[in-house]
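Tutorial, part two.
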Amino acid sequence: MNRMVFTADGNGERIDVFLNERIPDFSRSYLQKLIKNGCVNVNGKSVKSSYRLVGNDILAIEIPDNVKPDIRPEPIPLDILYEDNDLLVVNKPKGMVVHPAAGHYSGTLVNALLYHCDSCLSGINGVLRPGIVHRIDRDTTGSLLICKNDMAHQALAGQLKDHTVNRRYRAIVWGQLSKDQGTIDAPIGRHPTDRKKMAINYKNGKNAVTHYQVLQRFSSFTYIECRLETGRTHQIRVHMASLGHPLLGDTVYGPSKSPFHHLEGQCLHAMTLGFMHPRTGTYIECAAPLPEYFEVLLDKL
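Running the prediction step on this input gives:
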């Protein structure tokens, strides 16, 4: 039995929706089944799937062991930017899924990490996501922080929550931005009709802030740097699309076709990752070089 505990933020969200956003490996219908079977409680009491959360509600969910597959270590090469006894920072390649989920139980970053770290990873996020303190999309490349123990995980999760981690991305977007720099402050939540997408959602969304700066302008595209103040799912993709400048190659939030046929997914790279080391208190900053496809595309533009 795997037990997970969450604290609600009091925005009136349904409990099944809240859990689905935080445990995306499981469908909303499966989570509703767990709630119905008494595997989920709020403040020590069973509730219905329609229960709406209030501030400081404590949710506890018991997930039966047999719902999770056996995740095996795999000797997949890793591009390691930094490593010590508490953590490591890897440069994730394009097309690699971060952690196992339906349809992807092998070949993921977690499979590679279990092999490299001899299964010594933090366990706070459960069996499917050992060591994973934050994520980037399958087709986003670049710096990703991994925790080897729960002490490091708790400390770095706290830095992420407090918005003190320095996260800077490089992206190429459609069109010409009207300003050389700016800030997008708009809450992000699930799309109202397409549950696989995120959207600007002023009713049920969570606070999301992205700062951007133009690095270079081309005839039909703009090369930018984005600094994340928050870390919502698809944040940069949704925010830039909301300005009318979706990421090049992003067929989910932008045009269905790209003029560059070799692209696979959005042109987005997590270049810089800076944080305070959880044990020493020393500031550490890692920079993942632009991947080859990104460099080639810049040269073409």
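DSSP finds six helices and 15 strands in the chain. In part three we will examine how such features are distributed along the chain.
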